[in-house]
Specification:
Two copies of one chain form a homodimer. Chain A is of the alpha+beta class. Chain A folds into three domains: 95 residues, 3-Layer(aba) Sandwich (Rossmann fold); 64 residues, 2-Layer Sandwich (Dna Ligase, domain 1); 173 residues, ATP-grasp fold, B domain (D-amino Acid Aminotransferase, Chain A, domain 1), CATH 3.30.470. Helices cover 27% and strands 27% of the residues of chain A. In chain A, strand 9 and strand 10 form a beta hairpin. The interface between A and B is large, with 42 and 42 residues.
Chain lengths: 373, 373
Amino acid sequence: MTGDKKAPIRPLAPGSVIGIFGGGQLGRMIALAAARLGYVCHIFASEADCPAAQVATHATIASYEDRDALRTFAAAVDVATCEFENIPVESVRLVAEQIPVRPDWKVLEVAQDRVQEKTFFNTIGLETAPWRRVVGQGNLARAISELGRPSILKTARFGYDGKGQVRIDDDAHLGHAWHHISGTGGGVGVLEAFVDFAQEVSVIVARGIDGAWSAFDPTENTHANHVLQSARVPARVPVFLTAAAVDAGHRAAEALDLVGLLAVEMFVTRDGRLLMNEMAPRPHNSGHWTLDACLTDQFEQCVRAICGLPLGSPERHADATMTNLLGDDVVRWLDILGDPSARLHLYGKKETRPGRKMGHVTRLVPRSVATSP
Amino acid sequence: MTGDKKAPIRPLAPGSVIGIFGGGQLGRMIALAAARLGYVCHIFASEADCPAAQVATHATIASYEDRDALRTFAAAVDVATCEFENIPVESVRLVAEQIPVRPDWKVLEVAQDRVQEKTFFNTIGLETAPWRRVVGQGNLARAISELGRPSILKTARFGYDGKGQVRIDDDAHLGHAWHHISGTGGGVGVLEAFVDFAQEVSVIVARGIDGAWSAFDPTENTHANHVLQSARVPARVPVFLTAAAVDAGHRAAEALDLVGLLAVEMFVTRDGRLLMNEMAPRPHNSGHWTLDACLTDQFEQCVRAICGLPLGSPERHADATMTNLLGDDVVRWLDILGDPSARLHLYGKKETRPGRKMGHVTRLVPRSVATSP
């Protein structure tokens, strides 16, 4: 998986144009960080007035498959990155013929496919829950006989936030289960052994063009209905595990020859092992606390990495808990603004839908030296 | 000076549109803070592609005297504020007929005119250097005989960053001096007795619609060629003086019935008195360190105040020194990015001119509890 070593590249000077595939809140927060460093942003998104385009100087609103629009976009920017990983790889490759896209499309390809992703983790010696590739109902039955029940059937591609996955319990109807996921991801699934984990943690690693790298303190995450609900730092896990989480993230970033950010989500088993769950080559919801508690936040770090700048200090000056504002949670905005320890972040989304990520709030408390990794 | 008491006003909800008069870096940083809270910004500026418009969703590029453009702008926003105080008061009044402008145009009027400003300070019991209103060369000679030499002759209006001021030394040619300043500000000047001050400090006070107020820790400022060079916090002055500076800022904000921010610059005399120098009803260059060292920065505080939100905590988690990047200073951007304690802020200005504010850098060090006020 190690890509070709790139020749040393001059840092992109402020005033250069950063292209961002995707118009959501991650793109918005990359754009805000880029603006602070004097860069100009150009969003490529499928929806006008999206969160990122609202704060960027330029926007191309077009289909991600529109080759003319992609070429024009490429001609207008100096470097490009993805704020979500389900951009068609072909589109990214097309743009990469004209300008650097960081991380590389090969990283995107791995992250888009659970089979490739899990194979990658295992190949570099990182443990995952036992898993099987599944390509049909018969195949599924055999995988279940090997991994047992309960287990989780997931689409290999285009799944996120719990979409395209189903739990296989004792009474599961395999035909229904297979039907549920096979429509989403092109007929390939992954069956994962059920992990009765103690905690979920994640780490975000940044890596520069020169191979320099840096990690934020791992966070402890809570999900509800497969959607991240909150992330707290420091994670309440032993120091050896936070160190192991950072090491795993770093090894993955190295093996991918990553330039940019890599977020890796992991399970902590009850017997103290780390099992890799999934990864995303971009800023990550579980790292939003860095905006308020770190010298350099994950979005600035992303900009630094993709522009060939020195990475910033990820040092943390406070303990933090980040809570997502999902759907109607956002009606509490005024109460949150009245809490002196809270920092509110809203994403400019006009329509509130159940479960939609409308914003987040970070609550800071003085740093607890003893428990930090 | 106390304005009419306003009726309680409901907070402006996120998604509302904040109009900003002026397109410079202060407007840019207000817009970035507003975006984080989910507000939409609309810049009214005379130059396209200005720093603020680059990061705002909407922009009106027109003359500040264009009444049609002003009315259309007013119809498109929910509240407006000024990012610099030399917007024509008439234009602000026009917009204020349609929507709230905060701070009020009456505050702007005082801040635009050194005669009104100094009269205001003195009226509420705040000391200034001795001063005289000057309306011609003969008048100037009498004022000099009263205040002595050296003294400083300043235009009453439209002066900033040392423009429109001249020092009157023993060998000064009064005709030349008067000619130098009288063209800038409409033929009225102010002669100020020379203050051989020990330090310059400033304080930024926020005040809400409900009269709640909050102040950032006062900073100690260094000027070069009349332009702010650096600001450090905590100021190296006795605690009683930082308390007095906050009190002075608060009294001024109260007396103006201010809604928004008020920055007051002061001299510390060698015998330990505070002399008011000037004030600006907006975020201030000497408060840029709050972006990196405070829970709530001055730009967010400005947004909170003008939108009728609760003010945020101005608590400071680090000591800080903010240094302006003037003109070619900005070529050091890459070195600054390599300093782990430095936070770089660039303003998106395409043309570097001598002395032009291109950006700033804040250097943080762990908080020194002992010397903070």
